[in-house]
């Protein structure tokens, strides 16, 4: 999973003229247990890759800005 995640976000970091920053948004449906578990794995992967989360995490509706 980490390799796939690294590949996805790595594409966003490709440099091109005028690009100043990269933001990754990840969404989860907390009503589906399987999706929550997958999201938690991705969060661990983001941290392993050096990303951090910004903003307040809310249980019902969650949006993370990762960079």
TrEMBL record:
Keywords: ATP-binding, Helicase, Hydrolase, Nucleotide-binding. InterPro entries: P-loop_NTPase. GO terms for molecular function: helicase activity. This is Helicase.
